[in-house]
Amino acid sequence: MRVLLINSNRKHDMLAAAPIGLCYVATATEAAGHMVRTLDLCFLGNRVSRELKRVVGSFKPDVIGVSVRNIDNVNMLHSISYLPEVLELIDEIRKLTNCKVVLGGSAVSLAPEAVIRLLKADYIVVSDGEAPFRELLEALENKKDVSEIPGVGLLINDSFHFTLPKLVEFGNQKPDVGRWVEMSPYRKIGAAYNVQTKRGCRRHCVYCTYNQSLEGARLRLRDPYEVVSEIEEALEKYGHHTFEFVDSVFNDPLDHSRAILEEIVRRPWNATFTAMGVHPRGLDKEYLDLMWRAGFRSLMITPESASEKMLTNYNKGFGSEEVYRAAESLNKSKFAVWWFFMVGGPGETNETLQESLDFVLNNLQKKGRAVTHVAQFFIGIRLYPGTALWKIAQEEGFINSSSNPLEPLWYVSERLDLDEAVSQMSQSASICPEIYLGFDERVLSYSRTITSVCRFFRLREPYWKYMRLGNVIGIKSGIRFIFKHPDTAGLIRKALLRQSYAGRLVS
Ligand code: B12
Predict the structure, then answer these.
(1) d(Cα 42, Cα 447) in Å, to the nearest integer?
(2) Which of 7, 64, 163, 192 is the most buried (most CB within 10 A)?
(3) How far apart are CA 285 and CA 289, in angstroms?
(4) Residue 202 and residue 319: Cα distance in Å, rounded?
(5) What distance in angstroms lies between residue 70's CA and the mean position of ligand 1's atoms?
(6) Is residue 440 part of a domain?
(7) From the centroid of its chain, how far is CA 243?
(8) Ligand 1 lined by 70 (C-beta under 6 Å)
(9) Which of 34, 77, 106 is the best mutation target for the ligand 1 pocket, counting ligand atoms within 8 Å of the beta carbon and taking the most?
(10) C-alpha pair distances (Å), 164 with each of 78, 148, 158
(11) Does residue 383 lie in a domain region?
(12) What is the residue with the minimal CA distance to atom 6 of ligand 1?
C-alpha cells in the first residue's frame, strides 16, 4: 500500500520535537513491504495546505497516518489547545482524498474515544504504533475485519470499539529519524536528534499517564550497544551532534542508563547529550561525572516538589532528602539543569509550596557556581483519565462523569490560598532569576529571535539555559513580570469554573 505519514505537530519554538514516534512507525511500515512517504508540518508555516495538496496529489496514498502529539500545552495560565489545527488538517485531507485516515501519538493514547470522535478519523492506534498499524494495513489491504486488532479503535454505528493494546518487547527497531524528517530546521532552533532507550515506566506518580496508555508499566529496555550504535549511525549519516533521550525517565533503571553512558564513552567520537525526565535518585558525583564524560551538558529533572509531604502525596517514589542530595551533587558540576515543580497537588498548602520555593532559593541560586539552574513552577495539575488523581478529582468535585478529557482539566488543592500562592511565587521570582513561572512560557513565542541572538554570539546549547540570564536582565530593568496577568489567581479560578468546579477555591 502507499502510506503517507504526517506529523501534525507545529510547535516550532525552542522545544520543537522531531517526531520520533512517527519515524518508528514509518520504518516498521516500510519493513512490512509498504511504500512510505512522510510529511512534517512543523516548520511549514502558511505553506501547510499547499504542501499537503502537492504531496497527496503526487503520492496518491491509500492510507494516511497522522501523528497527534499534544492535546494542549499543559499550562493553566496560558492554555493552548492544539487539536483545532489537527481537525482543520483532517478536514483538508478529506477534501483531497477518500483514503482512510488513521491517528496515532500520545494525544490519541491519552483519550482515544474523545479523539476519534472529535477528529473524525477512521481508525486510531493507542500506545506503541508499529505492530497495530502494520496489522491494520494488512487487514485493510486484504479487506479483512480490523475490529479485533490489539491497540486499534474505531467507531461502529457510532459506538466506540477498541481492543486493548498488546505491548511487545522493544527489540532493536530503529526510527532513523534523519531519514524520514528534515532535521535542519530543528537543529537551527536548537532542538536535538531524538533517541529512545526504553519504553515503559515503573513509577506510579498519581497524576501521570506514562505507565498506562502511553508506554505501559513494564520496562522494555533496549540493548545499550544497539542504542549507541543508532547514535553513531545518525552522527555519520546526518551529522547531527546533539541528541536527546526521550525516555519517560532516562536514569531508571540506573544500571541500564549507566551501561549506555559507558558505551558512549567507549566510542571514538564526541557528541552532546541531554535528557528530559531525569530522576533525582542516583545523581551522585560518580554518575554525574559519567554523564559529563559521555557528553551530557544539560538535563531536565522532574522532582515536582521539594516537600516530603507532597512527594509522598504524588507517590513519586523518592523523598525530599534525595532531591536535596541531587542538588548538592549538581551544584558541584557545570551542567545546565531545568527543574520542574508542580504546584497544587493533593494536600498542597502554602507552607508546602514555600518549602519548594525555599529549596530553590537556598539551593539552586547561582552564587558564583558553574552550574546553571532553571526552576519552573507550574500551578494546577493536568488531569488525565485512568490516573489516581482523576479519581481524587472526581471525588472532590473538580470533574464529573461527563468531563471531556480533551478540555484542559485541572486539579488544585483546596488547601491552597490562591492569591497567597501567586504572591509567594512572584515574590520568590522577583529575587531569584532561576525561577520561571507559568506565564513566562509566552517567552517561547520569541524563540526564533532568542536562538538567532544565541547563534550570533556563538552561545552553547541548550538555549533554554539563557532564560536565567533573561530573568537577571528582567529583574534589573524592572520588566521581569512583563508576561504576568494582573489577576493570575483570577485566571486559575476561571479555568476551574470552565470545568464546572464549584468548590471552595471559586466561592
Ligand atoms: C520527551 C518529551 C518531551 C521533550 C521532547 C524533546 C524532544 N527532543 O523531542 C520536551 C521536554 C521538550 C517536551 C516538551 C513538550 N511536551 Co512533552 N513529552 C515527552 C515524553 C516524555 C516523550 C515523548 C516521546 O518522544 N516519546 C517517544 C515516542 C517514540 O513515542 P510517541 O511519540 O508516543 O510515538 C509512539 C506512539 O504514540 C505511536 N505513534 C506516534 N505517532 C503515530 C502516528 C501513527 C499514524 C500511528 C499509527 C502511531 C503513532 O507510535 C509511536 C511508536 O510506538 C512524553 C510522555 C511520554 N512518555 O510519551 C511527553 C508529552 C508528549 N509531552 C507533553 C507536553 C504537553 C509537552 C509540551 C506541550 C509542554 C510545554 N508546555 O511546552 C511540550 C511540547 C513540545 C513539542 N514540540 O511538541 C504531553 C502531551 C499531553 C498533552 N496534554 O497534550 C506528554 C504526553 C506528557 C504528559 N504531560 O503527559 N516533551
Answers:
(1) 14
(2) 64
(3) 6
(4) 17
(5) 7
(6) yes
(7) 16
(8) yes
(9) 106
(10) 34, 9, 19
(11) yes
(12) 17
Q: Which of 111, 146, 162 is the last residue of a domain?
A: 162
Domain span including residue 139 = 2-162
- 21 closest CA partner among 185, 271, 194, 156: 194
Of 12, 70, 154, best ligand 1 pocket probe by most atoms within 8 Å of the beta carbon: 70
Assigned domain for 29 exists: yes
**CATH number of residue 95's parent domain:** 3.40.50.280
Tell me whether residue 413 is in a domain.
Answer: yes
Please list the pLDDT of the chain residue by residue as tens digits (507 residues): 999 999 999 999 989 999 999 999 999 999 999 999 999 999 999 999 999 999 999 999 999 999 999 999 999 988 999 999 999 999 999 999 999 999 999 999 999 999 999 999 999 999 999 999 999 999 999 999 999 999 999 999 999 999 999 999 987 888 999 999 999 999 998 899 999 999 999 999 999 999 989 999 999 999 999 999 999 999 999 999 999 999 999 999 999 999 999 999 999 999 999 999 899 999 999 999 999 999 999 999 999 999 999 999 999 999 999 999 999 999 999 999 999 999 999 999 999 999 999 999 999 999 999 999 999 999 999 999 999 999 999 999 999 999 999 999 999 999 999 999 999 999 999 999 999 998 888 888 888 888 888 888 888 888 889 999 999 999 999 999 988 888 999 999 999 999 999 999 998
Whether 5 and 65 have beta carbons less than 8 Å apart is answered as yes
CA dihedral 487, 493, 498, 503 (to 10 degrees): -170
Helix intervals (H) in 267-319: 285-294, 308-313
Cα distance between residue 124 and residue 154, in whole Å: 6
